[in-house]
Amino acid sequence: MPILLYFPTLQSFVVTGAWPEHHCRVADGSLVNETIPVDKHGGYVKCEMYVDEERNKTEKCSQWQYIYDDIGPTIITKV
Questions:
Q1: How do residues 13-29 score in pLDDT, each as one tens digit?
Q2: What residue segments make up the domains of the chain, in order of their start?
Q3: Is the pTM of the predicted complex or chain greater than 0.90?
Q4: What b-and-e string marks burial along 2-24, b requiring 16 or more CB atoms within 10 Å of the CB?
Q5: How would DSSP label each residue in 4-46?
């Protein structure tokens, strides 16, 4: 019976907890397609960015840019 009491809370998180598309935040004036690697499906890699102009070396990023094409801001992007 206690599990049933938590069901509405869990269900609301599923609705409000959507994760939008995202990639590393690029510096002002930088182009995303020159700074963020592309994955095998043609999308941008989520957590890495190039650190050299030759695009040979990447590093993990600490800030992200969210893309709200399909959904608006969510609880995930507000944290």
A1: 455 556 677 888 988 88
A2: 2-78
A3: no
A4: eeeeeeeeeeeeeeeeeebebbb
A5: HHHHHHHHHHHHH----EEEEPPPTT--HHHHS-B-TTSSBPS
